[in-house]
Each structure stands twice: as structure tokens, then as C-alpha cells.
Inverse folding.
């Protein structure tokens, strides 16, 4: 119902988080996407994530490229600055913004066309650089806005109403692992229970976090022959673990079978409690993760969960040795060497 | 008759690239400068690492003319591949310095030039304790020594320069000085009196400095407060990003924490580079990229975004010969139209045209003020001639009381005080709206940036009126830019005239000399050096005040002329185009001949 304005009325009893914001404060404009679109579930998961993490909305900057998924930053965190840039180039714009102010939280929302086709180069290079960001790919295997062409993540043999995809798919999770991302996960838009903790861990991760989220396109790619449909993912979901995200000193809320839990402490002290659904899966082993993904993909399964994490990751600012004070807050005094130094320098050119 | 000239001649060095000639040749130019005699030097180099021909041309000009003169009086021919061509370029009565280790047998020579043979290879082989690579490098130093004898400049000047170049490396200094002596002594003994070109100590250099435009522009970015540089290597712009890096290391590392007050990223391509620049500027850091024509072509889509979403960006275009890969190591002014109207849809961009390294420094710093004030991309249109050659210019200056103009950025205090924030609303009447930076205020002042159509409140809109309102305001903003960009420099002729000439950028040095020479021939022209697009009213006034206006530029298609005709709606019949675009910098000789020919014809016709 995109033509109905969101009412401004807010229930006075609405619960506030520890920084004084209600769930509603993390919402955005009303989505213009199709009813049932997986992307809207991801927006909802992001709203929940930031609310529950007690992050003030204005400390977040959200970015996107072009496409259905790239529209979504308008639909969550309405009190954050957002930037809907050009097709496939979100990573570079986000990189620049991140260089300018290292203190904000950066999330980039992209799609499979935006990331795996036109923007594959920028995706790869921003992962290589180890940006401190959360890169979300809302992956449905098709171009929605231009009405259903296959994208580069569509599995070989996928069928649409009019065509068969014969090209090999690009697996963004595999690429992220190969290129050195320090937090890599895959999830499903229809599994909020898995998705929200995965997003929380990514946002608190001080490094390059990539999450590929299979997000079915109800209009063009939810057919029985699609590997990006609701039914297919539900039937073939090989979840290796689930995160129970816990902040330090928080109470343990659930009991687990002994031997199935592993705790991962992040840079900021937060703890990710992993409920290992596959006891043999080790999310600290990059090369085994890559091999496992390939094996399961060949078997027709979609591996989900936290696939890889490097606890003590560093980021681009660390590599560049950038000042702790954000660059956009430095003034003339900090930046301009002044006339005396220039006079001395002139001498070197004589 | 051998040419006799004092402090007024051209020496050209023909070398093979990768042979270490560049530093010896630069030493030659600097030695003459230290004698107080102005020089203009230009590198003519291939797009190659090793083995191809490269030239270095030094114009010695006691009168201080800094453009290329054209013609060569003394050729130092070190490259057998180009021997015939090099010999052919020497003016009648000129001189040829060559390696006479082997006698000239099959090589072409000329009757009307003086041969100055120096057995460079034999002499360098006599330097004890050296390896072959060193001897190859030292051959270049030996001819420098020979030149000091032939032209009469002091070897003590060279010695000082060598000591400055290798501080503390006594062994290297000794070896180089030995090579200088070898060449000098050989010429003294064997070539005495043959060369009538002389350098005589003078005081015409003053306190000027010898600096390249890319170096100066990189420094200007440091002074102008740039903190983020994203770039992709491309000739002839690479040395700008490298200069910025070097100057940042010198001036921008916090002495206590050792942390960098800058971030430099070598991007994966030019598209990513401009994306980073736009992202950083959007977030309130001063950011720039340096590139050349092919990079500008790649960045087009982003320029449209920055124009339409109103995001500052500073772009240095060090122009080279196009189209396509074109002539990557030759100069041109051929990206004007590309930059002025960059991107699809209706766009116009601010361009500024420095004339030399000094203005490159100044305009670099000013570009950030303009970009932030106008919230739009600003192109600093340099070229290879300015960027990659050392020019003799007045010392760089900085006013310590100067504050950066950060433009209209609304603060948390202003938002709390209830000041209205609407991202694309013209509240001040200058068509420049206010922006906020991310993270400013917990509940006020956020907005959503997009390249899709939007209304004054930054909300997505497909309404025709919302769209045209914004597009009209952008036009008005471009009008505002007219009064902020560097004004044209207008120079009146000594006598009243109906003739005018318009030029810009690196053409200036040749034009200065041409105007002086034309005046001596009784041909008077008023001159207007355009320094920015949009054109100030002074440019149209200048054209209106003259019957005929020459437009001198270094491209095939008369791009500046077309931009003027297009933007100022002036009858093209008013203009006479003078175009030089072979990749070498335009010479005064070329301009003088083209203008004199036309003016003389018209004067004759008037007389008849």
C-alpha cells in the first residue's frame, strides 16, 4: 500500500532502547517494493538489528547502488544519512565516506546485479582493502526493475518464464572469502532468527563484513525451477550454525547441548555465541570454508550461517595509519603547513 | 656562419629513455638558472620505460621568455636511432655535440653546422672503479662538463648543484665531479673557440623557483586542506598524486602520534577513484582525484551524480593528446568540452585554467573552496606541459590569515536553534542550498542523497515541476559561480585597437612573447586570458569591444571558441581560430606568424 502515508502517531507506551529510541525511530519511508519481496524482510531485520544494538540512528550512514535492493536504504533508518549512488559503485562511494569519518557505522546495501555484474570490480576491491563496513547483498538472481533478466548469481540451469540460464554463477560469499573478508555470512530473507544475529555480529565487526542474503523475487524468480525461490531455499538450506548474539555480561538466555556452543569474542568485547548446527564446521578456517561451500553447492544446497570470522581483524584505516580524529573534523590549523614552511620549501626549488 | 648568441639560444638533448639522461639534463638547466639566466625546459618523452627516443629541450632566454621558441641551436645527439632527424632540426649555423669515440662514417652530417665531437665513451671508460651502468650514466655528466666549457658556464655552479643532489654521498659527488672535469678539460683543449653560444652571468632569475605543475598542484592540495586523495595511475597526472603523497609525508604526519592526517588510496580504476572522492566530500572531507582525458571519460556517470545531487569534488585533468589513447606523453588542451558538459543529461561544470605551476598551486587550493561553496565538481584543467615540466615561476605564497571556505554546512547548533533545513531549497537567493554531514544531530537534519529526481526536500519525486525547479536552480547556481571563479586577466595593447586575442592555460608563456613581438611589428592586440568556465561578464565585454578576436588554443576543434560561442551566444564570425595541436607546446613563432599574417592582410585590404 505504497500510496498510504505512514501515520505520524506513535503509541506513547512504545518500548525505548537504552539510547532512548523506539523501534519506530529506526524505520524509514514506506517500501515501494512488491508485496512479499524478500528485500522488505531484510529492511525489517536491519531495523530490529539497530534498535536492539542500541545504536543512535544518526551514527549510521547507509549506501546503495542502483536496483530494487538499492532502493531499500530509504525504507529503514529514516534518521540516518543515506546515499543512493550509481549502479555498481556503492563500494567506492562508501569507501570515500569511510575515509572521511572513521567514527560512523557504514552499511552498504546492494543486489546481485549491482554487486556481481556491473559492480563486481568494486565489490572485489573494497573487500581486498578491508573496509570497516557491512556489505549486504540482497541476492535474488534476477534484475527486477528491468523485468526479470538473469543476473550473474543465477545458478546454471535456472529457468525463468522465458529463458534458461546457461552461465556459471558467481558466488559472492566464495569471492569474499577468497579476497580476505574478515566476517562472511550467508542467510535467507525468510529466516529472521538467523539473519538478525548475523547482521548484529557484522555491524559490530571492525573490518570487512560481507553477508549474502538470498532474497526471493516474488515477481520474477520464485518459480519451482529457481534456486533463489522461497521453497528452494527452505528445502535446501544447510545452516552450519546460528548466532546467539550476546553483549558482555548479558545473561545466558538459552540452554544448549554441551559441545555445540562456541564463543567468539570480537574487537569491541562483544561476544558472538555460535550454536553449531554442524559440529564439524569451523568458522575460523578460511580455506576449509571455501571447500565446504563448493561441495555443498555442487550437491544443490545453500550453506547459511556465519561462514568465516577473523576475530582480530583490522581495517583500511589501520593500514593507512589514519589519525584517530576523523579527517572531516580537521581544520586549517591541523591541515595547512603555513607560509613559513612554504618559504623554506621555495628554496628547495631554486 | 656559426650562430653567435649570448643568453639566447636553444639546446636540445636527444637521448634514449632509461639511460639516465634526465638528471644530467636537468642539472644543465639548473646550472644556467644558478647563473641568473632564465631557462624554459621541456621533456619530450615516449610512452615507454626503456630504449625509445626521448628529448629534453632547454631554451636559454636572457629576456625571460618561457615558451618554446622552436628550432634548435645546439643539438646534443646521443641517440643513433634519431640521428638523422635530430641533425635535420638544427638551425643553419648551429652546432652538433656528439660522441666521437668512433669516427663519423656513414652518419649524415651537414655542411652548415659546426661539429663538436667529444669521445664520451672513451672518457667514461677511463673513470676507474666504475661498473658499465655507471659509465653509461656518467657519459651524460661528461657532456655536461663539455657544455660548461663550450657555453662558458661555471663548473663551480654545477659542483654546488651536485652536492645538493647527493648530500653526504662524498664518493658519488667525487665521481660526478671527475666526469664534469673530464668533459670540461677535453673541450677546453680540443674545441676551444668553436662554439659562439655563450652563457653570461645575469640577474634575471631573481628569487623565482623552478617547479613542475603537478608538484605545485599536489602541494596546493596540502595547503588547501585536502585530506583524501583517490587516484588511478595515468600519464601525465600520476606525479600529481605522488607529489601530494610526498608533501603529506613531509607536512601532515602528526609529530606526536605519528598518525597521518590524510588518506591516499590508489583505486582500482578511475571510476572508483571519483566514487571515493564523491563519498569523502559528501561526508565533509576535502577530497580530490588527478587524472587525464581517458579517466575523465570513464568518470562521466559520477560527474552527473555529483552535479545533480550537489556534492563537492575536485578533479585535476592533466590533459594529454587525445582521442582514445592518443598521445599519452604529449600535451594538448583538448578536454574542455568533455569536462564542461561531462555526463548524460543537462549538465555544466566549473572549470578553472591555471597558466603555470604557480597558478596550479593557487588554483588547487582555491578549487576546494569553490567545490564546497558551490557543492559541485570543480575541474582544474592543467596539461602535460604545465604538469610535467619544470617552469620558472615566482615563489609560492600563502596567506596565513586565509580560512577555508567550507560552504553552507548546517551545524547541530543551527539545527537546535530551529533553523530550517531543506537539502535542496534555495533560502539565500544564490541558488546554493544547505547541506548537513552524516552524524551531525540525533534527530534533525538527515536527508537522503540520490541521483534520481528529487524535490527541494531531497524526497524522491517524479513530478515534472519538482524536477524542473531543481534543474532551473542548478542553472542559477552556475550564474552564482561566475562571480566566484578566477576572473579573466585583461591586458590592453599600447595603442587602441579593434583586435583582441583570447587564450588560456599553458599558452600564456608563448602568448606573452608573441604579443611583445607583434607590438614591435606595430601589430596591436588587446589580450584576455580566460581563467574559468563559466565565463565572467568581463569575457563577453571584451569580445564586444573588439571587431575581431583571435582565439588561440591547443586542440583541433577550437573547443574554447565553441564553448564561448555556445554559452555567450556570440556570432562565430567575430572570431578567428588559431589552433596548434601536434602534441608539442605551442610556440611564440607559430602564434606570431598566424596573427601577423591575418592582421597584415586585413591592413592591406583596408589600405587599398
Amino acid at each position: 500500500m505504497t500510496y498510504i502515508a505512514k501515520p505520524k502517531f506513535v503509541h506513547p507506551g512504545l518500548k525505548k532502547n537504552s539510547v532512548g529510541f523506539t523501534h519506530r525511530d529506526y524505520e524509514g519511508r514506506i517500501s515501494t517494493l512488491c508485496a512479499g519481496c524478500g528485500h522488505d524482510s531484510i529492511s525489517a531485520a536491519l531495523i530490529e538489528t539497530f534498535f536492539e544494538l542500541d545504536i543512535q540512528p544518526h551514527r549510521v550512514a547507509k549506501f546503495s547502488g542502483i536496483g530494487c535492493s538499492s532502493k531499500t536504504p530509504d525504507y529503514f533508518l529514516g534518521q540516518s544519512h543515506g546515499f543512493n549512488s550509481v549502479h555498481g559503485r556503492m563500494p567506492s562511494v562508501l569507501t570515500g565516506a569511510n575515509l572521511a569519518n572513521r567514527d560512523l557505522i557504514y552499511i552498504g546495501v546492494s543486489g546481485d546485479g549491482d554487486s556481481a555484474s556491473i559492480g563486481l570490480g568494486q565489490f572485489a576491491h573494497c573487500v581486498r582493502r578491508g573496509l570497516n563496513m557491512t556489505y549486504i547483498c540482497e541476492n535474488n538472481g534476477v534484475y527486477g526493475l528491468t523485468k526479470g533478466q538473469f543476473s550473474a548469481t543465477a545458478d546454471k540451469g535456472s529457468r525463468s518464464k522465458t529463458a534458461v540460464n546457461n552461465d556459471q554463477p558467481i558466488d559472492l560469499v566464495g569471492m569474499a572469502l577468497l579476497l580476505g573478508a574478515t566476517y562472511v555470512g550467508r542467510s535467507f530473507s525468510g529466516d529472521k532468527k538467523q539473519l538478525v544475529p548475523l547482521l548484529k555480529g557484522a555491524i559490530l565487526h571492525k573490518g570487512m563484513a560481507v553477508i549474502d542474503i538470498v532474497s526471493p523475487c516474488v515477481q520474477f524468480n520464485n518459480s519451482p525451477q529457481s534456486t533463489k525461490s522461497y521453497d528452494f531455499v527452505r528445502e535446501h538450506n544447510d545452516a552450519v550454525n546460528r548466532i546467539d548474539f550476546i553483549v558482555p555480561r548479558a545473561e545466558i538466555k538459552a540452554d544448549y547441548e554441551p559441545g555445540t556452543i562456541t564463543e567468539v569474542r570480537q574487537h569491541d568485547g562483544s561476544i558472538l555465541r555460535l550454536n553449531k548446527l554442524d559440529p564439524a564446521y569451523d568458522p575460523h578456517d578460511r580455506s576449509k570454508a571455501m571447500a565446504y561451500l563448493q561441495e555443498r553447492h555442487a550437491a544443490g544446497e545453500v550453506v547459511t550461517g556465519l561462514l568465516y570470522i577473523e576475530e582480530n581483524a583490522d581495517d583500511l584505516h589501520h593500514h593507512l595509519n589514519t589519525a584517530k580524529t576523523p579527517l572531516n573534523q580537521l581544520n586549517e590549523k591541523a591541515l595547512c603547513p603555513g607560509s613559513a614552511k612554504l618559504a623554506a620549501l621555495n628554496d628547495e626549488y631554486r | 656562419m656559426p650562430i653567435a648568441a649570448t643568453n639566447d639560444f636553444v639546446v636540445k638533448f636527444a637521448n634514449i629513455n632509461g639511460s639516465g639522461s634526465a638528471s644530467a639534463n636537468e642539472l644543465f638547466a639548473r646550472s644556467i638558472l644558478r647563473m641568473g639566466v632564465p631557462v624554459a625546459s621541456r621533456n619530450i618523452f615516449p610512452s615507454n620505460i626503456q630504449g625509445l627516443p626521448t628529448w629534453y629541450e632547454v631554451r636559454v632566454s636572457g629576456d625571460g621568455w618561457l615558451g618554446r621558441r622552436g628550432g634548435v641551436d645546439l643539438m646534443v645527439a646521443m641517440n643513433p636511432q634519431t640521428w638523422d632527424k635530430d641533425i635535420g632540426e638544427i638551425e643553419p649555423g648551429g652546432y652538433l655535440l656528439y660522441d666521437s669515440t668512433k669516427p663519423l662514417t656513414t652518419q649524415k652530417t651537414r655542411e652548415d653546422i659546426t661539429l663538436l665531437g667529444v669521445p664520451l665513451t672513451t672518457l667514461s671508460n677511463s673513470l676507474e672503479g666504475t661498473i658499465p651502468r655507471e659509465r653509461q650514466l656518467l657519459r651524460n655528466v661528461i657532456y655536461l662538463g663539455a657544455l660548461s666549457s663550450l657555453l662558458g658556464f661555471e663548473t663551480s655552479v654545477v659542483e654546488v648543484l651536485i652536492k645538493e643532489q647527493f648530500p653526504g654521498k662524498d664518493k658519488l659527488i667525487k665521481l660526478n665531479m671527475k666526469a664534469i672535469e673530464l668533459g670540461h678539460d677535453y673541450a677546453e683543449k680540443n674545441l676551444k673557440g668553436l662554439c659562439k653560444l655563450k652563457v653570461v652571468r645575469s640577474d634575471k632569475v631573481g628569487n623565482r623557483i623552478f617547479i613542475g605543475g603537478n608538484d605545485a598542484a599536489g602541494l596546493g592540495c596540502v595547503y588547501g586542506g585536502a585530506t583524501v586523495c583517490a587516484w588511478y595511475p595515468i600519464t601525465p597526472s600520476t606525479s600529481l598524486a605522488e607529489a601530494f603523497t610526498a608533501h603529506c609525508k613531509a607536512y601532515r604526519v602528526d609529530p606526536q602520534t605519528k598518525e597521518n592526517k590524510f588518506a591516499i588510496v590508489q583505486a582500482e580504476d578511475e571510476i572508483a577513484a571519483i566514487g571515493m572522492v564523491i563519498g569523502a566530500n559528501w561526508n565533509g572531507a576535502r577530497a580530490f582525484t588527478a587524472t587525464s582525458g581517458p579517466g575523465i571519460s570513464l568518470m562521466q556517470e559520477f560527474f552527473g551524480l555529483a552535479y545533480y545531487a550537489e556534492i563537492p569534488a575536485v578533479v585535476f585533468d592533466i590533459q594529454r593528446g587525445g582521442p582514445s589513447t592518443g598521445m599519452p606523453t604529449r600535451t594538448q588542451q583538448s578536454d574542455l568540452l568533455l569536462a564542461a558538459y561531462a555526463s548524460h543529461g543537462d549538465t555544466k561544470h566549473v572549470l578553472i585554467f591555471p597558466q603555470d605551476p604557480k597558478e596550479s598551486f593557487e588554483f588547487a587550493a582555491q578549487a576546494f573552496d569553490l567545490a564546497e561553496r558551490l557543492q559541485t565538481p570543480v575541474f582544474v584543467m592543467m596539461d602535460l606541459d604545465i604538469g610535467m615540466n619544470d617552469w620558472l615561476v615566482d615563489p609560492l605564497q600563502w596567506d596565513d590569515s586565509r580560512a577555508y571556505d567550507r560552504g553552507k554546512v548546517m551545524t547541530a547548533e543551527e539545527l537546535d536553534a530551529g533553523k530550517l533545513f531543506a537539502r535542496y531549497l534555495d533560502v539565500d537567493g544564490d541558488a546554493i542550498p544547505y547541506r548537513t554531514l552524516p552524524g551531525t544531530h540525533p534527530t534533525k537534519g538527515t536527508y537522503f542523497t540520490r541521483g534520481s529526481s528529487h524535490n527541494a526536500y531531497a524526497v524522491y519525486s517524479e513530478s515534472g515541476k519538482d524536477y524542473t525547479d531543481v534543474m532551473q536552480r542548478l542553472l542559477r547556481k552556475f550564474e552564482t559561480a561566475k562571480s566566484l571563479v578566477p576572473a579573466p586577466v585583461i591586458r590592453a595593447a599600447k595603442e587602441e585597437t579593434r583586435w583582441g586575442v583570447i587564450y588560456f592555460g599553458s599558452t600564456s608563456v608563448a602568448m606573452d612573447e608573441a604579443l611583445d613581438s607583434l607590438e614591435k611589428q606595430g601589430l596591436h592586440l588587446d589580450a584576455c586570458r580566460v581563467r574559468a568556465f563559466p565565463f565572467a561578464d568581463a569575457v563577453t565585454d571584451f569580445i564586444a569591444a573588439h571587431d575581431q578576436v583571435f582565439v588561440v588554443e591547443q586542440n583541433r576543434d577550437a573547443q574554447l571558441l565553441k564553448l564561448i560561442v555556445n554559452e555567450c551566444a556570440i556570432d562565430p564570425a567575430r572570431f578567428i581560430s588559431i589552433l596548434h595541436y601536434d602534441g608539442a607546446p605551442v610556440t611564440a613563432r607559430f602564434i606570431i606568424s598566424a596573427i601577423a599574417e591575418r592582421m597584415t592582410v586585413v591592413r592591406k585590404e583596408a589600405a587599398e
Summary: Chain B has a mean pLDDT of 96.
